[in-house]
Amino acid sequence: MDKVELIGLDADDTLWESEIYFAAVEEKFLDLMGKYSSEDDLERTLSSNEISNLRVFGYGVKSFTLSMIETAHRASNGTITSTDIDKIISWGKELLQHPVTFLDGVEEAVHSLTKDFNVFIITKGDLLHQRNKIEESGLDALVTGFEIFHEKDPNSYRDFLEERNISPENFVMAGNSLRSDIFPVTSIGGKAIHIPHDLTWDYEKIVSDDAPSSGYKILERISDLPQLLRSGSELDS
User: Fold this and answer.
1) Cβ–Cβ under 8 Å, residues 14 and 181
2) Does the reported pTM lie above 0.90?
3) Distance of alpha carbon 206 from alpha carbon 19, whole angstroms
4) 60, 88, 176, 201: which could form a disulfide with 126 (CB 3.0–4.6 Å)?
């Protein structure tokens, strides 16, 4: 394997829990809106609104909250009460304030990696919220730095590496999302390690027929990452 000069670690659902909190709020939202529409219709409408709103509001809690309000307005034909809107807004605030909960083995893995490698936390989403979570985690004191992308696409990764004079073949990205952490990196010649999470946002899922079967490694847990990178194993299977 080429010499590893920089390691990128995804944040949400790779270092700490995130999707479980969104899923819990969505469940409350579906229950609240059940008097207006079926659960299946509400789920489809909310998902559609989330994806279309990405272009306007970007990623994160604020976009999700606005998508819930839009879905509520449509499902209720404009009759949603101010009390119910207030509930939805309060759930959004709760999402912004939930504590950072590390996934198993994260702290030990990051401590180990930073002994021998330059490590960056690379995430995307709302700038303030992501920065707050990174700082609350305390990992910013260990890693070389962190970067919050507007979108995790090939150009964003390429620009990030060029700014640091790092060739893609000397970069390794680890994360739970094939769409955001794996395929954009392998497409520019970098190495990637997929660490799946039990819950994945629908937008981040890749249809199996579209997913390359090689070019990256799969790990069950982040605690195995330091040993894998130190072993010099090829990351293409």
Assistant:
1) yes
2) yes
3) 17
4) 60
